[in-house]
Amino acid sequence: MSNLSTEEFYDDLADSYNDIIYRCAPRYEEMQQTMLEYIPSDLEPRQILDLGCGTGNLTLRVLEMFPETQVTALDLSEEILGVCRRQCGDDRITYLQQDFGQLDLPDSGFDLVVSSIAIHHIDDAAKQVLFRNVLASLRPNGIFTFVDQFRGETPAIYEKHMQVWKSFTDSKGVPSEEWQMWMEHQDQHDFHATVSEQMRWLSEAGFVDVDCIWKHVLWTLLTARKSGDE
Questions:
Q1: pLDDT tens, 44-82?
Q2: Rounded alpha-carbon distances, angstroms, from residue 110 to 118, 177, 203, 224, 226
Q3: Is the pLDDT of residue 152 over 80?
Q4: CB-based contact 121:189 (threshold 8 Å)
Q5: Contact partners, residue 134, CB within 8 Å, separation at least 6
Q6: Rounded to whole angstroms, how far apart are CA atoms 207 and 196?
Q7: Domain spans, the chain
Q8: Distance between the two ends of the chain, CA-based, in angstroms?
Q9: Long-range contact set of residues 10-14: C-beta below 8 Å, sequence gap at least 24
Q10: What is the mean pLDDT of residues 122-145?
Q11: Region 168-177: what's the mean pLDDT?
Q12: 3 or 226: which leads in pLDDT
């Protein structure tokens, strides 16, 4: 699998993704639940975008929290969107296959944009473009919140992150070949940026109230708001 594109990689993992993510991502449920807890209580979103929806684990949580909303579930992988459709259904969801680097989103089309462990798949320049595109897609006072893998602020901290992560997967009985698969994919297709860099890029894109809400090893939750003056 070492030479697969990101799309091909997740196409191949689609049916086993849920099992894999729970044993490979520490505190997976906690990070998503915390994201929802920090969505402003006065926000009543009519339209939500799940950016990099994967198999729909976060999509389901959003639908449960906001029973009157419509969700657009967007992902690069056609196969993983199929799993999301089987897990979440169709009643309140529009499924959209798009590359983060070539997004075609409606201006001011969403009240809330969420994302879980997806944005690190694009390089740093593309992240900055993505943040501007997400801002344009939000209505005034709309919220963008995402949890993802982040680089440590120093090489030593980043190295420690990787050691702690490996210890966690070992404790879950993850086979060495599965860990190696993830590391090969990470070396070729993942782009970890620091928390401080990404908070700065959000501010430079035009977001306000940028904050880090939760952090554990590589996994970090950021939130930002589009100004109500726009």
A1: 999 999 999 999 999 999 999 999 999 999 999 888 899
A2: 19, 41, 19, 14, 11
A3: yes
A4: yes
A5: 51, 105, 113, 144, 205
A6: 15
A7: 6-225
A8: 45
A9: 10/54, 10/75, 10/76, 10/77, 10/79, 10/80, 11/77, 11/78, 11/79, 11/80, 12/79, 13/80, 14/55, 14/77, 14/79, 14/80, 14/82, 14/83
A10: 97
A11: 90
A12: 226
What's the maximum distance between 2 C-alpha atoms anywhere in the chain? 52
- Give me the percent of the chain exceeding a pLDDT of 70: 91
Query: Could you tell me the strand order of the sheet in which 138-149 lies?
Result: 93-97, 70-75, 47-51, 110-116, 138-149, 219-225, 208-216
Please name the amino acid found at residue 5.
S
Locate 63 and state its tokens. 């639908």
CA distances from 150 to 37, 102, 154, 198 (A): 21, 22, 11, 9
User: Class of 6-225 per CATH?
Assistant: alpha beta
